[in-house]
Amino acid sequence: MEKVLVLGGTRFFGKRLTERLLKEGKEVTLATRGESGNPFGNTVHHLKVDRFNRGSMEKIFQDGEWDVIYDQICFSPDDAMDAVDIFSGRTGRYVFTSTLSVYDFDDKGCKKEDDFDPFHYPLKEGRKEAFSYGEGKRLAEAVFAQKADFPVTMVRPPIVVGTDDYTKRLQYYMQRIQNRQPIGLDQPDARLSFVHAGELADFLYFAGHETFTGPVNTSSPDAVSLHELMQLMQHELQDGSVIIQPTSDSVEASPMNFPASYYQDVNRAKEAGFAFSPMSNWLPGLIRDLKHSIS
């Protein structure tokens, strides 16, 4: 039986990944702080570890080997270096959940994997408190790319959405549309990428059982402007108004107030054998499902 270790994996797309692994008959070990509990009971091995403390990592993982390791909670170069050292020679494959945020905002809206090269990015030390979210992920990718002696795939999701999204970003917009409240957007025509949590979990599973390595973008192949997204929400809500205003002292910035278009080319994933679904296949239905969660 294939042995899989998941660092994280108790909520959102990490939980969906764990569900998929169990469905496929894998022997799963979950490693978490234990703060969110263990929703899988005795169907998994559960280890309590502080992912951001090297001593805790060394103690908990002093023994064991895994065919695949999924890392959902690595946010800095020191986090990555701990994994590189501790799991050296002890896994056949490592799948690191990185982010779209490794790419800069610039006049090139469509991001390709080669727009950020972790294999030649200068290394630094530090935990996540020392860096922005995007820089911490860039440096973590660089450590894996340049230091790991095991194969690493760096998964770069954009905005992840689903009914179990604990950030409730989509609900924020739906609530304001329904209540006819202003939405703070400075660039409403900026085009963005999204991925459904279920499909991201499927890709993570896929990545753990294929041979490709390095960075890979993971989103629906189409992009949508924020204004178009708001209009779709209003259509599905059948109520409210879309009132978009620039941010100011009296209008707060909304959660996806991006300064420019920021979306992904996903041809690399397609060439590897995984085709993401267009948003038109799932986004209207997701909005309808979320409609019941707002008051």
From TrEMBL:
Coiled coil: none
NAD-dependent epimerase/dehydratase domain mapped to chain residues: 4-71
One matching Pfam family: Epimerase
Matching InterPro entries: Epimerase_deHydtase, Lipid_A_modif_metabolic_enz, NAD(P)-bd_dom_sf
SUPFAM superfamilies: NAD(P)-binding Rossmann-fold domains
Classification via PANTHER family: BIFUNCTIONAL POLYMYXIN RESISTANCE PROTEIN ARNA
Protein name per Swiss-Prot or TrEMBL: NAD-dependent epimerase/dehydratase
High-level lineage: Bacteria, Bacillati, Bacillota, Bacilli, Bacillales
